Amino acid sequence: MENNDNLENEFNKVRNSIFYFDWNIYSYLSNLSVLSPDMEKTKYCFSIILDSFIDLSKTCIPYSVFHYRDIILGDESFFDDKIKTLLKYTNGWNVKEYPDNKELLQYNKSSDMLTEFNHYRTNAEFSDKPLSNQKKLLEILMHKPLDNDVFVDIRDKLIKIISDDNEPAGLSILKLNKVMRNANLKVNNAKIHYPVVSHEQFNNAPDIHGLVEKTLKESDIDFSLVMKQFDSFKILSSSFVSNFTSEIMRLSFICDFIGLSNEKLSKKTSFEAQINDLSHLSLALRMPFFVTEDKTLAMKANFIKKWLKLPVKIFNMDSFITTVLSQVYKEELMKGNLIFKFMDNNELVKEYSLQKSS
User: Fewer Cβ within 10 Å of end Cβ, the chain: N or C?
Assistant: First the structure.
């Protein structure tokens, strides 16, 4: 906290109830996203929970500059509406790493979020120059003659990706990894085995470290060589990225490598959005509660939580609704199960089953 007695007193009232919402939650609440009928119902129930069951004067739902970046990656015509939604639910609370000690979090309150956003927007810059250099090097290497004709087809696909000057370097490199993994390459008529951990294995693994180590050893890919790419990035980023954030990025990379997560790469901003998602995680996983509707990000969050044995609880909107209702009606639930119905103009929107307290 900054040296402000009033702000510190205000924070002391909310410090035991801190939630971090992923950007997709705010996007849904702003009514600017096209949602499925079922998700529309869930969003309606979620907004009722926030408006009627949670006292925002006793709750901190902080935003960060990474929410600002999410806004910038979207349609400019909706910027003001998105900032208004952010202000409504965060009440101006924001969070960042301490400048002098990035392992700690600093909470503050904005007095003028729109001005703050416009300032950030004017000065924000995302550079993938180091990746652009790597992209050029990969293109040179791929045009060298091949000793094995087996790799010609896949080489041509990779050259097509890496030679696209209209595509950001980071996105091209992510696509290379995906193409390689899905190519079913063979050497001496034997298929190259990539490491794969299924969701069932992950959920049932008492020792996630042991499971991942075993999976990597059984793979044909030398993971130590792969990690050298990450280690070089870690050295370059050590001056501006905290150790915790660096570990988040490393574990996210492992989660992708073992096939637990599968990022979509359909937009030009996909690489930048992924980096921003990991920045969100670097804050969210240091808080008591994290809410997201991004299934891939939730998978990474749960993998990292399990690996680092973090106390954070991770929800989607449905599980968050059920948890809040179970706390509100905990005395009634001691007697038996309950069904809670959300209504709109006397019509049923959605109902939630609440289980008897044990």
Answer: C
Amino acid at 317: M
Kindly tell me the burial class for residue 249, based on how many C-beta atoms sit within 10 Å of its own C-beta (0-12, 13-18, 19 or more).
buried
For residues 110-144, b (16+ Cβ closer than 10 Å) or e, as one string?
beebeebbeeeeeeeeeebeebeebbeebeeebee
CB 290 within 8 A of CB 321: no
pLDDT at 276: 86
CA-based nearest residue to 237, from 174, 270, 282, 285: 282
Which residues share a beta bridge with 209?
none
Confidence category of residue 165, pLDDT binned at 50, 70, 90 = low
Q: Token pair for residue 38?
A: 């079922």
Where are the extended beta strands (E) located within 268-337?
Answer: 289-291, 313-315
Which H or E run includes 1? none
335 touches 311 (CB < 8 A): no
Structure tokens that stand for 178 in this block: 């995906």
Question: How far apart, in whole angstroms, are the C-alpha atoms of residue 141 and residue 124?
Answer: 33
The tokens of 102 are what? 């990035």
Nearest to 19 by CA among 210, 285, 219: 285
Instruction: Give the CA count within 13 Å in the CB-facing half-sphere of 349.
Output: 16
Per-residue pLDDT tens digits for 256-288:
888 888 766 556 555 677 778 989 999 999 999
- DSSP code of residue 355: P
* Length of the chain in terms of residues written: 358
Residue 245 structure tokens: 């954030």
